[in-house]
Amino acid sequence: MAQPDPTVVVSTTSKQYAPIANIPIIKSPSLRTPVPIPIPVDVHPLPDNVNAYFVYPFTLEPHVLTLESSRQSTFQAHSAKNAAYLRSREEEKIRRKREALHRIAPGFEPSAGTLVPTKIALRPSSVSIGSPPPPPPLGSIGAAGGASAAPRDVMDDLVDQLAALDSAKRS
Description:
By secondary structure, the protein is mainly α. Helix content is 36%, strand content 4%. The longest helix is centred in the middle third of the chain and has 44 residues, at 61-104.
């Protein structure tokens, strides 16, 4: 007898496969058909309308709301803590700046404005070197020959101080 042909011809019983009925299919001994998957008995087919499956479960609502409120309260606590930390850093920076200014100029307050020097009235006998001379009496005669009604300026004070230093060195 003749050996079996390794090709198999598809049967022509089906109209769907009629055009390929005469094409031989080669079978390989290393290939086999997969084992069919058993379908569980409790599986039911989907209905025609699946909208019933997309109903929102309101049982999740309290969980979502409590989770959101706890998240918001945690966020507010963290933001308050961060704001307090930033505020304390700013206050510390201002305090350090104020301390540095107090070391340079005791009594200086940045919010009060600039310091204005005040003249201290000295007795005529207590004139020392380096201190400004006492102001001249009101009836003194100025360089123009009349009474000096204008207030003394800084240059006049400087000239008087230099003259006082010069006279102190000579005596």
